[in-house]
Amino acid sequence: MLSRKGYSQELAKKARRENFPVASRLLPRRHRDHLMAVYGFARSVDDVGDEEPPGDRLRLLDEFEADLARLYDGETPRLRPVRALAPTVRECAIPAEPFHRLIEANRRDQSVTRYETFDDLLGYCALSANPVGRLVLHVFGEVSDARLALSDRVCSALQIIEHCQDVREDYRRGRVYLPEKDLRRAGCPDGHLAATATSPPLRAAVAVQAARAAKLLGEGEAIVATLAGFARTAVAGYVAGGHATLAALAAARYDVLGRAVRPRRLRLLAAWARVLMTTRSSDPALQRLPSA
């Protein structure tokens, strides 16, 4: 078992591999700590659903669920990622539901390995990705119905972008997150997913998902204009990570099997600056949104 220091170091290493700045040093320490606590829970639950022996995964996810119940009942959690959440849940008044939805997403991964349509995939994103954005808004005390709706678009986009990057890794785990309908339309059977080179049909199928993610990201980007201060900086970073990764996928011509497609730091920073400088809301009411 890792020490507390070892756990923090391992978590920071994983965060650096994400497409976006999880807890930028531009933010105050209290915000970074809360964001890393949220990320630590989400990452740990994902690791259980992906990395543990298949026969143990549902049991371990049940343990996370039970430990969340302890936390919200005022008891001391047993698992380190849940214990680390205690100050964040208390200080930011975070409800339990988003955490439970993240666990449910990983339960679904154990039985649902393919999605027929893009709408089906969005239903999965509502469990696996959208709760994270909602947790971030709670961390900054910036929750409102309108912001939650915009955040969901951003987070679904980020999840779909990640699926585009991880086609090979997901397939090796027995999962396909590219909608079956789109794979058939592109003429892309499973053999293309198992290949060492990205075929033109697979590139076409990935490009379709990237275009859909770009549309969602563009729709959700208006959330940045409704925020100020450190919340605006953080959320702009997440949006910028999506834009930078989409640009990297396009530059690679959607070759997701022959290389690891990741955004370069300079591209991310440039996108971050652009989002901060140019994002404007088309709805003046959004700029006056109260926190819930």
TrEMBL record:
Coiled-coil residue windows: none
Enzyme Commission designation: 2.5.1.21
GO molecular function: squalene synthase [NAD(P)H] activity
Pfam family, one: SQS_PSY
InterPro entries in UniProt: HSQ_synthase_HpnC (IPR017827), Isoprenoid_synthase_dom_sf (IPR008949), Squ/phyt_synthse (IPR002060), Trans_IPPS_bact-type (IPR044843), Trans_IPPS_HH (IPR033904)
Keyword terms, alphabetized: Transferase
Protein name, as recorded: Squalene synthase HpnC
Organism: Nonomuraea bangladeshensis
Taxon lineage: Bacteria, Bacillati, Actinomycetota, Actinomycetes, Streptosporangiales
